[in-house]
Design a protein that fits this description.
The structure holds 2 protein chains of 2 kinds.
Chain A lengths: L3 H37 L4 H16 L2 H9 L11 H27 L2 H9 L4 H16 L1 H14 L11 H12 L3 H29 L5
Helix pairs in contact in A: 1-4, 1-8, 2-4, 3-4, 4-6, 4-7, 5-6, 7-9, 8-9
Chain B lengths: L2 H4 L1 H31 L6 H16 L2 H11 L9 H26 L3 H9 L4 H31 L11 H12 L2 H36 L1
Helix pairs in contact in B: 2-5, 2-8, 2-9, 3-5, 4-5, 5-7, 6-7, 7-9, 8-9
Classes of the chains: A mainly alpha, B mainly alpha.
């Protein structure tokens, strides 16, 4: 055993990278998804059709290929990204589609009467969206959003392929130095498992917090 | 499109064949354990606990890590597996965990009264499962099952990491040899999307067929 303790800083660094990269990727995916959901509901038919095509396209695309296209294909049109940035942007683009579907369903689930009531009360369209529709939609979409965030966290393991030093890459590096194979991969599997468990518990806490009595 | 890029298609389609073969094999090999896991809730405490740990692990860790563990650990037990076999095994064990949730939900949606009525009529539990539970469960879980198959095809792109020459691996090789990563990766991406759309289309056709039959009865 090369000593789990001597490798601990490496695992920690990988863990931090995994958390920051997938955290940023998830944040971008949520914002992008929200924008796409609004475009899907747009009255401009050409815009909503275009975004619908993007969402359908993104559904079938594996993250690995989105990543390769951006990281290796990007330089062909002058887009040079570091593995870190390419990883975050790919996660954001890849995750935007599913989040758009989640938010579209959530916004559609808010009763029409609420918007009519808000208009009657003199709220502008923007105010109505921000204070009436969005908060309700976010509450409704919390469980699937947490599920999607967990999926993206797990998918971030793919970023190791473009030499980004996250958990999976760390396990590969340690096993190639120490020739121990089983321990590194089992270690990171446990770390991912813990992250996923923490995220899903956190989601359940949020759900309880924002639960509305009587519903 | 110039000549260097035009000749990528045969190799990509060859990779696509491998992708589809591995995905289909994983889907089929994953189904029986998934059914066992789906019915584990009817078993004893130990069976339930073991099934729970299995589901939690395979659903809570990245597929890439699962794939690498299977690929690297099996030789320790004297099993020198071909990468294709290891890849199929890992994907099958993974999809088993996800399929089991789909089967469980589908079976749960069958009204209990139907099973009681069938029991009253003297049907054996095997016949009840085959003729009452399974057909109805299949109809309710079809959309989720199609989604899982689409996910499986997408996930199979990870087998490229252990040097299986699937569509993604082929694209990597072509990107290196043609120096045109943009065109090659975009083409491979389009192939994945087309497969995904075809699967969705087939799913809708089956759904329509099943609902038509049920109305006719």
């Amino acid at each position: 055993m090369s000593g789990f303790m001597t490798d601990a800083p490496l695992y920690l660094a990988g863990l931090v990278t995994t958390i920051t990269v997938s955290g940023s990727g998830i944040a971008i995916a949520i914002l992008f998804g929200l924008a796409l959901a609004l475009a899907l509901r747009s009255r401009l038919r050409s815009l909503s059709l275009l975004v619908r095509a993007y969402v359908e396209f993104a559904r079938g695309a594996p993250l690995a290929l989105v990543l390769f296209l951006l990281y290796y294909g990007g330089p062909q049109f002058g887009l040079l990204l570091s593995p870190y940035v390419a990883g975050i942007v790919s996660l954001g683009l890849y995750g935007g589609g599913p989040f758009a579907e989640i938010f579209r369903a959530g916004l559609n689930a808010v009763p029409k009467g609420e918007r009519e009531a808000a208009e009657m009360l003199g709220l502008t369209q923007g105010q109505c969206f921000l204070y009436v529709e969005l908060p309700q939609a976010l509450r409704l979409t919390l469980p699937p959003s947490v599920g999607q965030a967990i999926a993206l966290l797990k998918e971030s393991a793919v970023l190791s392929v473009i030499t980004l030093g996250e958990l999976t890459k760390v396990a590969g590096a340690i096993s190639s130095i120490t020739f121990a194979i089983v321990t590194p991969y089992l270690t990171i599997a446990l770390l991912y498992w813990a992250l996923v468990e923490i995220l899903s518990r956190f989601g359940r806490i949020l759900e309880r917090r924002f639960a509305v009595k009587g519903f | 499109m110039d000549k260097a890029v035009a000749h990528i298609w045969p190799a990509l389609l060859d990779g696509l064949t491998t992708t589809m073969t591995i995905s289909l094999a994983a889907l089929l090999f994953g189904a029986p354990p998934a059914l066992l896991l789906a019915t584990a809730g009817r078993g004893g405490r130990w069976i339930r606990a073991l099934a729970g740990i299995y589901l939690s692990f395979w659903r809570g860790t990245p597929i890439l890590v699962q794939l690498l563990i299977i690929f690297y650990i099996l030789p320790f037990f004297g099993l020198e597996l071909d990468p294709v076999v290891a890849a199929t095994l890992a994907l099958a064990l993974n999809t088993a965990a996800f399929q089991s949730e789909i089967y469980r939900a589908g079976l749960q949606a069958v009204p209990r009264g139907e099973i009681e009525a069938a029991t009253m009529l003297g049907l054996s539990s095997r016949m009840i499962f085959l003729h009452i539970e399974a057909p109805q469960a299949f109809r309710t879980m079809l959309p989720a099952l199609v989604g899982e198959i689409q996910a499986l095809v997408k996930n199979s792109s990870l087998v490229s990491v252990i040097a299986v020459t699937d569509l993604t691996r082929r694209a990597q090789q072509l990107a290196a040899s043609t120096f045109r990563p943009l065109e090659v990766y975009a083409s491979a991406l389009v192939l994945y999307v087309v497969i995904g759309l075809l699967l969705a289309g087939v799913g809708l056709l089956i759904e329509r067929h099943l609902s038509y039959r049920s109305e006719g009865q």
